[in-house]
Amino acid sequence: MSGPKTHPWIEKLGVYSAGKSKAAGTAKPVKLSANESALGPSPLAMDAYRNEAPNLFRYPDPVYADLRAALADKYDLEASRIVCGVGSDELLKTACRAYLGPGDEALFVAHSFSMYPIAIKSVGAAAIEVPDVDYKADVDKILTAVTERTKLIFIANPNNPTGTYISRRDVKRLIENISSNILLVYDAAYAEFMDQDDYTDGIELVEHHENVFVTRTFSKLYGLAALRLGWGYAPKNVAETLDKCRDPFNVPSSAQAAGVAALKDTEFEQKVISHTAQWRDWLSTELSSLGLTVIPSVTNFILFRFDDENKSAASANEFLTKRGYILRYYSGQGLDKFLRLTIGTADENEEVIKLLKEFLED
Ligand code: PMP
C-alpha cells in the first residue's frame, strides 16, 4: 500500500471508548455514563469562564501562573512543580511520551482506567495488565509483574471503574519496593471525594520520592469536564521533564480562569461532596436490595453486577437506554456483567432505581 507509513504500534492502537451520550429516540437523555458532576460547575467558575470571552483573541498564559498559584495555595505545594494538561488524560500520555518507548514495559491493573493501555501503546511500549483481587489493585501482584524492562506503573486510586481504593500503607509499600528508575503515575482523579483516614492523595509521596507523578482533574468534583483541565504534581526532575514535553499553550485562558475560581468555591465543593456521599449510600442500598451485587464505592459512581443470566447487564443497558437513561456498559474488560452508574441528581437517581426495578420485575 502506498502513502505515509505509521509506526506499527500506531496501526494497532485502539481508540478510547467514551461513555455514551446519545440514546435513540430520546431528545435529552440523562447521561450517567462518564462520572461527570451531578451538580454541574460552580457558579463562580461559570462567571470566571464568561469573563474570559473578551480575551479570546490572546494566547493564554503559557505557564498558567495564577492557576499554579491557586493550586499551590490550596494544597500547600511548590508551584513550579505543578504541571497542567488538557484534562489529566493529556498528562497520562505526556508521562508515557517522556518515559517510555519501544522495548519498554508499563504496568496497569485489570479493571482500571482504559486510557492506560492506550497511552502506553501509543508510544510503542508494551502494556502489561496485572490481575486485581476483588476489584482492587494488589500491590504484591504489581511487584511480581515488574521486570527489568518496566519503566512506568499506572495506578488509579480511587479506581475507575470499580470505585475501590487501596490504603496509604499499600501505596507506600508499592513505591518503596520499586526501583527509582520506574515512574509511578498515581492517578487521583477522584481524590476530592475521599475522607478516609487511611487514604493518600499521593502528594506526600512527591516529597519523599523522585519517581512519582500524581495526577488530578477538574472534570469530576469541579464539574469542568468540557474545559479539559487536569493537573499534576511531581518532584523537580519529573516536573521539568513533563513541562518540556507538553505543548506551549496547552491550557486555554478560560480553563485557567474557571479552575482558579472553582478552587475558591469551597461551599460548592462541600455541597458536591455531601450530595455524592448521601446518594452513594442510598443508591448502593437500593441496588443491593434489588438483588444486584454492588462493588463498594468511595467515588461518584457505582459499579454493580447482574448475576441472573435472564436479566443481564446488556439487556438492562438496553432497557434503560430506550427510556433515556445512559449508564456505562462494558462489553469488554471482563466486566460484561456490570453496569457503572454515575451518581446523578436526586430525581435522576430515584428514576434509575425505579427503572431498574421495572426491568427486574418485568
Ligand atoms: N483518570 C481516571 C481514573 C478517570 O476516571 C478519568 C476520567 N474518566 C481520567 C483520569 C481523565 O480525566 P480528565 O482527562 O477529564 O481529566
Write up this protein.
With 362 residues, this protein is an alpha/beta fold. The chain has 2 domains: 8-40 and 267-361, Aspartate Aminotransferase, domain 1, CATH 3.90.1150; 43-265, Aspartate Aminotransferase, domain 2 (3-Layer(aba) Sandwich). 38% of the residues lie in helices and 16% in strands. The protein contains 13 helices and 13 strands. The chain has helices at residues 8-11, 43-51, 65-75, 87-99, 115-121, 139-145, 168-176, 203-208, 236-245, 253-264, 266-289, 313-322, 346-361; strands at residues 30-31, 82-86, 105-109, 126-130, 150-156, 183-187, 212-217, 229-233, 293-295, 301-305, 325-326, 328-329, 338-342. The chain has a 7-stranded mixed sheet, with helices on both faces. It has a 4-stranded antiparallel sheet with strand order 9-10-13-12. α3 runs parallel beside α10, α4 (87-99) packs parallel to α5 and α11 runs parallel beside α13 (346-361). The termini are far apart. The model has no long low-confidence stretch (mean pLDDT 96). The chain binds 4'-deoxy-4'-aminopyridoxal-5'-phosphate. 4'-deoxy-4'-aminopyridoxal-5'-phosphate (PMP) binds next to α4.
Name a few traits of the molecule:
four-stranded antiparallel beta sheet; Aspartate Aminotransferase, domain 1; seven-stranded mixed beta sheet; 362 residues; alpha/beta; Aspartate Aminotransferase, domain 2
